[in-house]
Description:
Elements: E1 6-9, H1 16-36, H2 39-64, E2 70-73, E3 76-79, E4 85-86, E5 90-99, H3 104-109, E6 114-122, H4 136-140, H5 143-150, E7 155-156, H6 165-176, E8 180-182
Parallel strand pairs: 5-8
Antiparallel strand pairs: 1-2, 2-3, 3-4, 5-6, 6-7
Helix pairs in contact: 1-2
Amino acid sequence: MADDESLELRAAWVPLRPWTLVALPVVLLGLSSLVSGRLVLLLVAVAGLVLGLVVQLLFSWSRNRQGPVMVLDRAGLEVRGHPRVSWADVEKVVVSTFQVRGSRALSWLTTLQNGVVVSFVPRPGVRMPPPPGGLKHELSSWESVRQARYGTNLTVVPSFFNASARRIARAAHHLGSIPVQDDTKQ
C-alpha cells in the first residue's frame, strides 16, 4: 500500500490481452501486404490498431480523472458514488478463480477467460455496493449472479484495476482486520 493507511483502486490503463490478440492479425496483414505490394492494407490495419488504442486510453483516462473507483482505508471501503461500508459490516474477503464459459473469442477480448476475483462478503443483513468500474447498468443486471456465485454484490476483478488480488486482500486484512480466504490454492 502506498501509505499503509489506504489503497486506491483505479482502472488499468490498457488491458494487454486484447491488444496482443489484435496485433497478430495486424502483423499477418502487414506481412501479406508487403509480399503482395499492397501497402494500403498495412496502413488500414495500423490505423485501426492505433485508433483502438487511442479509444481505450481515452476511456481509461476519463474513468481515472474522476479519482479512484474504490478506496480501502481504516474506516472501511468505499466504491465511488456509493456510501462507505464499515469494516464491521464485512465478514470476510474471498479470493477465488473464475472461468468464462461460452465464447472463447469473447473471453479473450475481455481478458476474462480465466481470472481471479476478490469478493467482499458482508455480514448478514448488510447490503454491499456494486462492483467498482463505472458500468452501472451492465453491472446491476448481474447482481443476482454475483450474489449466488460469490455471496456478495461487491466483487473486484483485479485485472481491470491497478492492484493485484493479493494486494487488495492484504489491504483489507491490514486495514480492517478482515479474515481472508484464499480459494485459488485449492
